[in-house]
Each structure stands twice: as structure tokens, then as C-alpha cells.
Design brief:
Structural class: mainly alpha
Shape: elongated
Helix content: 10-25%
Oligomer: single chain
Radius of gyration: 63 Å
Order of helices and strands: HHHHHHHHHHHHHHHHHH
Length: 549
């Protein structure tokens, strides 16, 4: 009966109002927990307490799952005051990671077992070192070794292979990694699956293997123990082949750049690609054997001038190249297709052929055997034409610069361009015939003064030019458009004057136009009345002109 009374008192304390008001209330030892006592305690005995299956721990803010479901209450609730228990993992579990990985243990651990690494393995894939191959089966402590206080054992772990595998690197002797200067980036040869059975991928190196090189053993090239910094020049391995090759590579000064002729497929059967040299082969040269050009044993520095091979062809050629002083630059006329049928391109010379010259044979101009240094003046070929032409070029002193009047189209029908001379033709002069001016046979040095042709016009002109003393500079009054209708420009005296237009109105002396009369129109009476009080006034024409210009 006493046990039942105590239980009722405790229930009254846990659930206010649940007990009898007449009984004494007892303080709840579980803090703010509000549950029926029967959830944990039974009538068989107050202790030990047993939590009934219907109790939902999740409603208290912490669901029990995994290993937590089988843990005793006192494992977490060390005090009867259940409300004071923290829910962080570190409240019960010591952080072996010293805070390096944060406070959320669930990122790596599960409630099923603290040592369950399933979540940790997935989380590791999100780090800078995802686990692959054998790394996935390695325990954490294999890489994350215990470190002294203050040093990082997880976040600061190096991801370089050599920091875990240095022992294997140093111990490797076939080949010796240290002596061979092998790089410490192990992934070049090793994989995470297994450390043994390493494979070096030459194709990813600066010297990819091709042809026969792919079947070569490492020892054949690296027998000297040199791996890192190994020379990749062909001759570093093939010096014996170079030294005994035919033709003699050494005496011929062949380049040691073997790949110019050889391939990695086979050393023999080398083929030199002339098209990549300074002398690409074209035409008949492509079918010539090496011996035909290099029979003298000279390969490197061989002259590429045509005459170095074709001197005999040059010496016996027709026309005689030697006596004619032909250039030994054979390609000026010849091609590599064939030596015969040469064609000299005059258009590329200093004397391009035009007009009738293009149909002229070589013999017509070079019949004297002169080719090199042949004069290009017209008269050197056309002297006979110059001597027999009409008008007589010789007596007239015509220039021998034939192209002044003639063209290469035809010798006849020459046209002299007066506009390019010292006497350009204008007006009526342009329709005048050559004979009208040069009927005296004078062409070179012909007088260009107007009166030299127009003396009869001057002598017969009205007013009488000779009697009046008119100057013979005809262009003062006349133009080349027409001889009649001349107009004198009274520079110092405005004309017409008071309606008078005829020259004889003022120039009353026909034989002397320097004399003029003002008093014919301007009477003395009228003039005197207008000059009253004028100092120096004199009534005569000369004095009138002195003031009234």
C-alpha cells in the first residue's frame, strides 16, 4: 500500500491534477517532462524504469534510430532532468577530428554505427581528392595519420601521390626512379587500382612513339638509365646508322636531322623530299636520279644554278651562247620541262616587244649575232627607213628618236604631235598642212615668229602696217582663229571713245599711228571754257592725253 501511495504522489507531480488533491504533491525529478509515469515505470517496481514501445522520442526533438534505439536512457540522460540534454553529436561523442570537419557529424557518420563509413565515402567524392580504385578500400587512418595538437590531420592532408607513396617511389629499382629522375607525379604511370604493373604513356609525352618505335623495349632507348631529360633527337640513338649510311652522310655533310629523309617505320628506303628544300624539283628534274646531279658526292651546299649542271648544253647551244654573251641564268629562256624549244620573254627585258615587233623573228634584229647589250634605239634597225623617208629626214635634220612620230604598229602614217613641241598648234593652225608651214623644207629649228609665215599678210594689211610702222609681233592684235578682225588693246586709253570706233577717227595720219588728234572733236572754245583757272593748261592733243588717259 505504501508503494502505491508513493506512485500516486509521483504521478500527481508529473501530471498536475492527475492525483487526489488530498495527497501531498512531490517535485518532479525529470524537469519539464510531461508524460504518464506508466510510460517508464510499472507496478512491479519503480526501478528499473522501462520505456514502453509507444513512447515516441522523435516528438521530443531527437528521433532514436540506428544504434541510438538500443542505447540505455542513462547513456545520454546522465541526470534525471531529461530536459537539459543537448542534441549535438559532440555532446555525447568526442570529436576526434578536432573541429577540422565541422560540427555536423552526419556528413560522414550514420546513427547505425559510428564507424560506418558509407556516408563518409560518398562525402569524400565531393572533396579535392575523390576516392577511386584501391583508395576506396583503405581505412581513413592510412592517409589521415594522427597529428600533434594544433596540426591538421584531415583538411590539411596532401593530395600528392608521393606524400603517401614516397616509400614505394624510393624503393622502386626497375627502373630506379630516384636515379632516373622520374617525376613524382605517380599518375603518369601508376593507377589507383594497383601500384604494380605501371604503364608509361609515351603518347602523352613530348615524344609520342610511332612506327617501329612502338615495338621497341624501354631498355633499347633508356639502357643508359636516363629517362627524364632524355634527348629526343634521332641521332642520339641512330648515330651508328648515320655513320655507316650510303651515301656517306658524314663526308657529304648530311644533316643529322634524320627525319628529313627517314621515317619511324623503317630506317632503310629513305626518301629526300626535294619539295621541302631550297630547290624543289619540277618538270624533267623529277625523273632525274640522285646520281645524275650528286655524282660528285656533293649534297649539302650543292649549287642550284642551272649552269652548274647544264654547262655543256650552254656551250654548244645555237645561237652561240658564249660568243653572244648570253646570261648563264638559263631559266630566262629555258624551262625544266625540256632544254630545247627555249623562248626568250622580251616582255621581261628592258625592251618589251609591241606592235609589229612581236611578229619579228630573232634573226631580223639579232642577225649581227649581238644579243646581250644590243642597242634598243629605233634607228639602229631603221636607219635605212630614216634615210629614204619623205620628207627627207636627213636634210631636214629630223631627230633619230623615231618614236616621236612613228609607232611600232607601222612605219608609215607617222604623226608629229605639235602639242608636245615648243610650238603647240591652236586655232586655224591645227588645220594647216605640214607643207603650208614647212614647204621650205625646214622642220628642225623652224622660226616660230608669226611674221615668218604671215609676212605677205602684214605687207598687204589695211591700215598699211609697214607705212604706219606697226610692230611685227602679230599676236598683239591678231589671234590664230582668224587673221582678219584684229583688235588692238588700248591698254592706256578707253575705246570706243564717245561713240567713235574707226581707228582713223583719231589717227588721221595713215602712215603714223603714233600720231593722234583730240582737237578734231574737242574744239578750243569748248575746252578753254572747261579749263578756266587750270594751271599749265595748253590746248593741244599731247597735253590733253597727258591728263586725260
Amino acid at each position: 500500500m505504501r508503494l502505491r501511495s508513493v506512485a500516486l504522489a509521483l504521478c500527481a507531480a508529473v501530471l498536475p491534477g492527475a492525483g487526489l488533491s488530498a495527497q501531498q504533491q512531490t517535485r518532479n525529478p525529470h524537469g519539464k517532462l510531461q508524460e504518464q509515469c506508466a510510460v517508464c515505470h510499472g507496478p512491479q517496481g519503480w526501478v528499473p524504469a522501462r520505456v514502453v514501445a509507444s513512447f515516441d522520442h522523435a516528438k521530443k526533438g531527437f528521433p532514436l534510430s540506428g544504434a541510438h534505439a538500443s542505447a540505455t536512457c542513462r547513456s545520454c540522460h546522465v541526470s534525471l532532468n531529461f530536459g537539459g540534454v543537448r542534441t549535438e553529436c559532440t555532446a555525447c561523442h568526442k570529436d576526434a577530428h578536432r573541429g577540422e570537419l565541422g560540427q555536423d557529424c552526419s556528413r560522414c557518420h550514420t546513427p547505425r554505427s559510428f564507424h560506418d563509413q558509407t556516408v563518409m565515402a560518398r562525402a569524400h567524392q565531393m572533396t579535392r581528392f575523390p576516392l577511386s580504385g584501391a583508395h576506396g578500400a583503405v581505412g581513413c587512418s592510412s592517409c589521415h595519420r594522427p597529428a600533434p595538437q594544433g596540426q591538421l590531420a584531415y583538411a590539411g592532408t596532401s593530395v600528392q601521390c608521393v606524400d603517401c607513396h614516397r616509400t614505394q617511389y624510393v624503393a622502386a629499382k626497375s627502373p630506379d626512379h630516384v636515379a632516373g629522375g622520374f617525376p613524382q607525379s605517380c599518375t603518369q604511370c601508376h593507377s589507383p587500382t594497383t601500384w604494380a604493373s605501371a604503364r608509361f604513356n609515351h603518347d602523352a609525352s613530348s615524344f609520342p612513339l610511332t612506327g617501329a618505335h612502338r615495338a621497341t623495349t624501354c631498355q633499347q632507348c633508356h639502357g643508359d638509365g636516363v629517362y627524364n631529360g632524355k634527348s629526343t633527337t634521332c641521332v642520339s640513338c641512330h648515330q651508328p646508322d648515320y655513320s655507316r649510311a650510303t651515301p656517306n652522310h658524314v663526308s657529304s655533310g648530311f644533316s643529322t636531322t634524320c627525319q628529313s629523309c627517314h621515317t619511324t617505320t623503317t630506317w632503310t628506303g629513305a626518301a629526300f623530299n626535294h619539295d621541302l628544300s631550297s630547290f624543289p624539283l619540277t618538270g624533267a628534274h623529277r625523273t632525274v636520279t640522285c646520281q645524275q646531279c650528286h655524282g660528285d658526292g656533293v649534297y649539302n651546299g650543292k649549287s642550284t644554278t642551272c649552269v652548274s649542271c647544264h654547262q655543256p648544253d650552254y656551250s654548244r647551244a645555237t645561237p652561240n651562247h658564249v660568243s653572244a654573251g648570253f646570261s648563264t641564268t638559263c631559266q630566262s629562256c629555258h624551262t625544266t620541262t625540256t632544254w630545247t624549244g627555249a623562248a626568250f620573254n622580251h616582255d621581261l627585258s628592258s625592251f618589251p616587244l609591241t606592235g609589229a615587233h612581236r611578229a619579228t623573228t630573232c634573226q631580223q634584229c639579232h642577225g649581227d649575232g649581238v644579243y646581250n647589250g644590243k642597242t634598243t634605239t629605233c634607228v639602229s634597225c631603221h636607219q635605212s627607213n630614216y634615210n629614204t623617208v619623205t620628207p627627207n629626214h636627213v636634210s631636214a635634220g629630223f631627230s633619230t628618236t623615231c618614236q616621236t612620230c612613228h609607232t611600232t604598229t607601222t612605219w608609215t602614217g607617222a604623226v608629229f604631235n605639235h602639242d608636245a613641241s615648243s610650238f603647240p598648234l591652236t586655232g586655224a593652225h591645227r588645220t594647216a598642212t605640214c607643207q603650208q608651214c614647212h614647204g621650205d623644207g625646214v622642220y628642225n629649228g623652224k622660226n616660230t615668229a608669226c611674221v615668218s609665215c604671215h609676212q605677205p599678210d602684214y605687207n598687204t594689211a589695211t591700215p598699211n602696217h609697214p607705212a604706219a610702222g606697226f610692230p611685227m609681233t602679230c599676236q598683239t592684235c591678231h589671234t590664230t582663229t582668224g587673221w582678219t578682225g584684229a583688235a588692238f588693246n588700248h591698254t592706256w586709253f578707253r575705246v570706243p571713245h564717245h561713240g567713235y570706233r574707226a581707228c582713223t577717227d583719231c589717227h588721221t595720219t595713215p602712215t603714223n599711228y603714233a600720231v593722234f588728234v583730240c582737237t578734231t572733236c574737242h574744239t578750243k572754245t569748248k575746252t578753254d571754257s572747261k579749263h578756266q583757272g587750270r594751271s599749265g593748261y595748253v590746248y593741244n592733243s599731247q597735253n590733253c592725253y597727258a591728263c586725260h588717259r
